[in-house]
Design brief:
The complex is a heterodimer of chains A (276) and B (463). With 276 residues, chain A is mainly α. Chain A contains 13 helices and two strands. Chain A has one domain: Up-down Bundle (Fumarate Reductase Cytochrome B subunit), CATH 1.20.950.20. In chain A, α1 runs parallel beside α10 and α8 runs antiparallel to α10 (218-233). Classes of the chains: A mainly alpha (276), B mainly alpha (463). The interface between A and B is large, with 58 and 69 residues. The complex binds protoporphyrin IX containing FE and iron/sulfur cluster (2 copies). Residues 71-72, 74, 85, 88, 131-137, 147-148, 151, 391 of chain B line the site of one iron/sulfur cluster (SF4).
Chain lengths: 276, 463
């Protein structure tokens, strides 16, 4: 009985949560002594929210910088978020909202089934069983898109001279890890080696802190092991940026208002008294 | 500008002269690199990591996506891979990984960590002094990673072990002891002002004053000292401008420098240089503080003064103002009579100094003025202006002869854009740019002239 897989996953999740939390807290606690927003920049909070939102959801700077990077990067991130939603959305609890990927179909969740289904069902004429099947297919499609985007990013790293020259082992490692995770995931969906219901029960039980035995499937085991590796890897690598690095970045999150109000540097107090 | 193929070490030989022991002592820095420099550098590094979020966050979050790689003028000009912003930052980041992160401590080279060795120290001194802290890279980074912040931190660490350039150190020392970067003492400052007053009399027929240390004036104007030395047209322009407005103004021989080279050395000197301006304004009892035509001076003044040496509540408007911002206001109020035809025949384009555009928010003001006073005004290509402007290649302490090749390389993208505009005159409100461009034009055999925005405005003012 593969209870150890659940335990390992708890361990990895703990490292992930504590590690990431610790890193974010560290950023937050490190003072920003001076006003350094990039100008032109918004002077009010609402403007700053727009600026951050633009970076977070549209990768605005990347769009300005390099469309051939923006395209795979943005597609990959959207696909990743959809896959995450899809994973939890497929469960009884907790209930998550749905999302759409372009014209492609959504990753559906139980909220849709409880509340939205009668409505969506009325619209599409689909039964609940068909709905579940559809979720599988759309999840698989999103996975395939993510794989394509990752391969694009990988090829770019290998082929574009400048990017290759700055790439480190960890840049390739992150890409390969993600590729393997999604490939094993899609393998289960499409090759049908796994009973999806059983996998769902495993994840649901795991989330509810009542771990159940993992399905005895080598690909599934591999998938979970790789996910553990990723979770542990994130806090210690460049992947910490998933904590929303742009949100913490003073060039982007500061209001451009030093000409309207005085900004007092948090660690300037000692200095000020030294020369006052 | 098209990105060049990588030419490893193309710029590795471009070195600044190092500051001598006397100079370093005057600035309170170690007079030579101490035997325990490694430990001291890491201690300073640690201190900065705990006091500057920009440094820590930017070292942590770069994903090496490469978006910034072809955005730096020094990479575009030299092709040296270490001049790609991300690679420049990696010079510091690899040491950060090795000494300050769990992954780097455990896995070393596998986690791209590297020991702080003599060779790394040399790389720092070379490449962090081939960055003009222009922030162009930051505009294109998905996390706003500002390599200028990394460069500043690296320079601060180097300063703490007695590694600084001769040029920056000399200038900071002169600012502390004499009051300006060029080293013009009070008597010469007054003499030059008298001389320029005579010049103005000849040009305009009017008795235009360039007052010095005049207590109780409405405006303290702090120009870059180069305006009194090489860009005298700009100095005279301030005079004609305030004369036409009927506003009383003065310069200060104590704070006779808008520029702040402390910013290119360390925080302590940034603050100390900045302090003189506040003290002068308080002593003279002025009501407004106006900064002359200079890029980094404006950054230091508008973004840092209030924090470092404020509050400026003794002023009627308790913040520094920029001369072009001031000019736009009075023009809109209809307080100046302008004659556009004075600048007829000039094909003028405008160069955004990086610090005005990306760190000071002065972007539309000069354009509003130029459109009013020069029929021949035109823009350079859109991806080279406003916040995407290319640096002149001489900011942040690079305006020195021993690295002339680096300067020529750094200005190349800007020169190409200038040529595309078809202009004959380059209007520039920055003393560093004004010193760099004539040399660059000569080097690239371009027949063009550099003028201040205020110079053109003054020409158009009808007294
Ligand atoms: C602030 C918003 C974000 C931005 C601007 C951003 C940007 C980027 C960029 C530019 C890359 C590098 C692509 C490459 O060239 O290899 C990347 C990689 C990655 N991002 Fe994000 N990201 C953001 C948020 C997130 C979030 C929320 C997640 C998690 C769901 C995430 C997960 C990843 C992963 C796993 C990679 C690895 C791919 C690689 O190493 O290249 N990112 N991100
Ligand atoms: S654009 Fe930003 S994240 Fe990308 S390589 Fe440059 S500094 Fe790193
Ligand atoms: S701040 Fe300017 S000079 Fe420095 S790395 Fe960035 S683009 Fe290059």
């Amino acid at each position: 009985m593969q209870l150890w897989l659940s335990l390992l996953l708890y361990l990895a999740a703990a490292v992930f949560l504590i590690g990431l939390g610790w890193r974010l807290l560290n950023w937050l606690r490190t003072p920003v002594p001076l006003k350094i927003p990039l100008t032109p920049g918004p002077a009010d909070r609402r403007g700053v929210l727009w600026r951050l939102g633009g970076e977070l959801f549209a990768f605005r700077a990347l769009w300005r910088a390099d469309r051939s990077l923006w395209t795979p990067a943005w597609i990959f991130h959207v696909a990743l978020v959809l896959l995450l939603i899809g994973h939890f959305g497929g469960l009884e609890t907790p209930r998550f909202a749905c999302a759409t990927l372009g014209g492609m179909q959504a990753a559906f969740c139980r909220v849709a089934c409880d509340v939205g289904l009668p409505f969506a069902g009325g619209l599409t004429g689909m039964s609940m069983a068909q709905f579940g099947h559809f979720e599988d297919i759309s999840g698989g499609l999103v996975g395939a898109v993510a794989i394509a985007a990752l391969l694009w990013l990988l090829l770019r790293r290998l082929l574009a001279e400048r990017v290759r020259s700055i790439s480190t082992f960890s840049d390739y490692f992150a890409l390969l890890l993600l590729l393997l995770i999604i490939v094993t995931g899609n393998d289960m969906r499409f090759m049908g080696g796994l009973n999806i219901e059983q996998a769902r029960q495993f994840v649901a039980g795991w989330l509810a802190l009542h771990p159940t035995p993992a399905p005895a499937d080598p690909v599934f085991t591999m998938h979970i092991l790789l996910v553990c590796a990723l979770l542990i890897y994130i806090p210690f690598s460049k992947l910490v940026h998933i904590g929303g690095a742009a949100l913490f970045s003073p060039t982007l999150n500061q209001r451009n208002n030093p000409r309207q109000r005085r900004y007092t540097g948090p660690w300037d107090k000692t200095n000020a008294s030294a020369t006052a | 500008m098209q990105a060049p193929p990588l030419k490893p070490n193309a710029a590795a030989g471009a070195h600044h002269h190092r500051a001598n022991p006397t100079l370093l002592a005057a600035l309170g820095l170690p007079t030579e690199v101490p035997a325990d420099w490694r430990a001291r550098a890491l201690t300073k590094f640690d201190e900065l990591l705990h006091t500057r979020r920009s440094l820590k966050l930017y070292l942590d979050t770069c994903v090496r996506c490469g978006a910034c790689t072809d955005k730096c003028p020094f990479f575009l000009g030299t092709g040296d891979p270490n001049n790609m912003p991300v690679a420049r930052a990696e010079l510091l980041r690899k040491v950060y990984r090795r000494h300050f992160t769990a992954a780097g401590k455990l896995f070393g080279p596998l986690a791209a960590g590297e020991e702080l060795t003599d060779a790394v120290r040399e790389q720092w001194f070379t490449y962090f002094y081939q960055c003009t802290e222009c922030r162009r890279c930051a505009v294109f980074c998905p996390f706003g990673v500002d390599t200028a912040e990394i460069t500043m931190a690296a320079r601060e660490i180097m300063a703490s072990i007695g590694l600084a350039t001769k040029y920056v150190s000399e200038v900071v020392d002169k600012a502390h002891t004499i009051g300006n970067n060029i080293g013009i003492p009070e008597a010469a400052w007054r003499d030059t002002c008298r001389f320029l007053e005579e010049e103005l009399k000849e040009q305009t027929g009017a008795d235009i004053k360039l007052p010095v240390n005049q207590a109780g004036a409405e405006v303290l104007l702090v120009p870059p000292s180069a305006d009194l030395f090489t860009n005298t047209d700009t100095m005279m322009a301030y005079g004609k401008f305030f004369h036409a407005l009927g506003v009383s103004w003065t310069t200060s021989s104590y704070a006779s420098e808008a520029g702040n080279f402390g910013m290119f050395l360390n925080y302590e000197h940034l603050k100390k240089v900045n302090r003189r301006i506040v003290d002068a304004a308080r002593q003279l009892g002025v009501r407004r503080l106006v900064m002359g035509e200079c890029g980094h001076a404006w950054r230091a003044a508008q973004a840092f003064t209030d924090t470092l040496n404020g509050p400026l509540d003794f002023l009627e408007k308790p913040r520094p103002e920029h001369i072009l911002e001031y000019a736009v206001r009075v023009i809109r109020q209809g307080r100046l009579k302008l004659d556009k035809s004075a600048n007829d025949g000039l094909a003028v384009t405008y160069h955004d100094p990086c610090n005005l555009a990306r760190a000071g928010g002065i972007i539309e003001e000069p354009r509003e003025i130029l459109r009013l006073i020069a029929r021949g005004f035109r823009e350079m290509p859109a991806d080279t202006i406003r916040e995407k402007t290319f640096c002149c290649g001489a900011g942040a302490g690079l305006l020195t002869d021993e690295i002339m090749e680096t300067r020529f390389a750094g200005v190349k993208p800007r020169i190409e854009a200038f040529c595309a505009s078809g202009a004959t005159h380059l209007a520039v409100p920055c003393a560093i740019c004004k010193a760099q461009f004539p040399v660059a034009f000569e080097h690239y055999r371009i027949d063009a002239q550099v003028v201040g925005v205020m110079d053109l405005l003054a020409k158009a003012i009808v007294l």
